[in-house]
Amino acid sequence: MKDTLAVQRRLDAVDYLVDDGMAMALFLALKLGKPLLLEGEPGVGKTTAAKALARALDTTLIRLQCYEGLTAGEALYEWNYQRQLLAIRLAEAQHAPLAEADLFRAEFLQERPILRAVRHQGPVPPVLLIDEIDRADDEFEALLFEFLGEAAITIPELGTIAASTPPVVILTSNRSRELHDALRRRCLYHWIDFPEPSRAAEIVRRAVPGAAEPLIRTATEFVGRVRGLELDKAPGMAESIDWVAALSVLGVTDLAADDVVRTIGTIAKTPDDRAAVAAALGSHQESQP
Q: What does pTM read for this prediction?
């Protein structure tokens, strides 16, 4: 991808629409070989960005889903203890000498997502998605510093394994906690805003091609207004798509239909939010001619 316009075109071809800022962030991440940290409210398309980029590049997507308690053995690598034990028993049965170093060779490694990305072979590097890094513990971030800065992993028994071609690394965060400055320094950064109404409508149009045009327009406009309410969880693009898809399945073509209020569980995720969105929907329907 030679420039930001090429990034936008390639992503558009896989039905992922980006603005100029996002296109620039992805372009620089590709050209500089730097990890890209994407932040934004849930549902604005952070995870989808990595998936779409992998499709646009026609390469492998490797995903590491973060959670509290995530360990190096689950994210980087782990030794295959069963194979090591079998090697020990085989050596004993054959009365063959077996040094400790013989048990810690590359063949006994179990690849986890990050090591898999480092050792990936092929003409195009993989896209490594480190999803919701803010859900992992502070200590886990420190395990990533070497990889994020050098595209390498040091395994005490084997030494440092560096990627022949650095993977494209996308990290996402919902800002449930602050990330360490050392992690941020190793990454490019982009904040994904909720899209403007016309782009939001186009995103929904791509995701739910069978939906009626008036429904797409009014539903995305309504979600945009709802996001201005004091909600526990403002609906994002993911919820907008789910809502329009649900309404489309029911044959609804505009927000004046009676079935609409019964589908707001797709965009309102708490009892208080449901009541607030239902009231807003009632006001909207009453204002329609």
A: 0.87
Q: Which two tokens stand for residue 106?
A: 């590359």
Pairing state between β 188-191 and 168-173 = unpaired
CA 32, CA 26: separation in Å to the nearest integer? 10
* CB-based contact 207:241 (threshold 8 Å): yes
Structure tokens at 123: 């003409």
Closest CA to 17 of 27, 7, 25: 7
Q: Return per-residue pLDDT of the chain as tens, 289 residues.
A: 789 999 999 999 999 999 999 999 999 999 999 999 999 988 889 999 999 999 999 999 999 999 999 998 899 988 877 776 887 787 777 777 776 666 777 777 888 999 999 999 888 999 999 999 999 998 899 999 999 999 999 988 888 999 999 999 999 999 989 999 999 999 999 999 999 889 999 999 999 999 999 999 999 999 999 999 999 999 999 999 999 999 999 998 888 767 788 899 999 999 999 999 989 888 777 666 5
**HSE, side-chain direction, 13 A CA sphere, residue 187:** 28
Q: For 40-85, give the secondary structure using H, E and C.
A: CCCCCCHHHHHHHHHHHHCCCEEEEECCCCCCHHHHCEEECHHHHH
188-191 β-sheet, strand order: 61-65, 127-131, 168-173, 36-39, 188-191
3-state secondary structure of 90: helix
